[in-house]
Design goal:
Blueprint lengths: L11 E7 L4 E6 L2 E8 L15 E9 L6 E6 L7 E6 L4 E5 L4 E6 L7 E6 L15 E6 L3 E6 L5
């Protein structure tokens, strides 16, 4: 365990590795936290009970005008700065972690809050055109699946 429950004001709803396992993303309320990760794998029998691995908060990002993040998507398989979040306000927000800010908001993407976002991560079994990595899908209860393009936000 790296972080105690006192670090988070609400329960953590979602966690994933990010940026080729260099970071961790955690959703907590209307914000997500970017944590740096440094795992110490050295073996020292004399100090084996001392925790030497470190997980530190890098930055917090808040979704605009929402109570809670209902879904988050970020690619870990290759270097991507894009993080997508859906909130209880039924909006989708695009964050550029390279710039450290929100870059776009799409209001009312579904009649209900989206419960899943899936970005195109590619496949080891086939090649794709570079533009295909700009595609993502969202889904909400009772509304099916919608396919989106980051370039047009439609």
């Amino acid at each position: 365990s790296f972080q105690g429950k006192e670090m988070f004001p609400k329960s953590v709803r979602f966690a994933q590795f990010y940026f080729m396992d260099a970071f961790i993303l955690l959703c907590c309320g209307a914000e997500f936290h970017l944590l740096s990760l440094n795992l110490d794998t050295t073996k020292d029998e004399l100090k084996r009970y001392k925790q030497r691995s470190v997980c530190k908060l890098v930055q917090k990002f808040s979704m605009a005008s929402t109570v809670e993040i209902t879904s988050l998507s970020a690619v870990n398989d290759f270097y991507s700065y894009v993080v997508l979040t859906a909130g209880s306000n039924r909006a989708l927000e695009v964050f550029d972690l390279n710039a450290g800010c929100s870059t776009a908001v799409i209001p009312e993407i579904h009649p209900k809050s989206a419960h899943q976002i899936c970005q195109n991560k590619g496949s080891a079994f086939s090649s794709q055109q570079p533009g295909a990595y700009n595609l993502f899908m969202t889904t909400a209860a009772g509304d099916g699946i919608k396919l989106w393009d980051l370039r047009t936000l439609r």
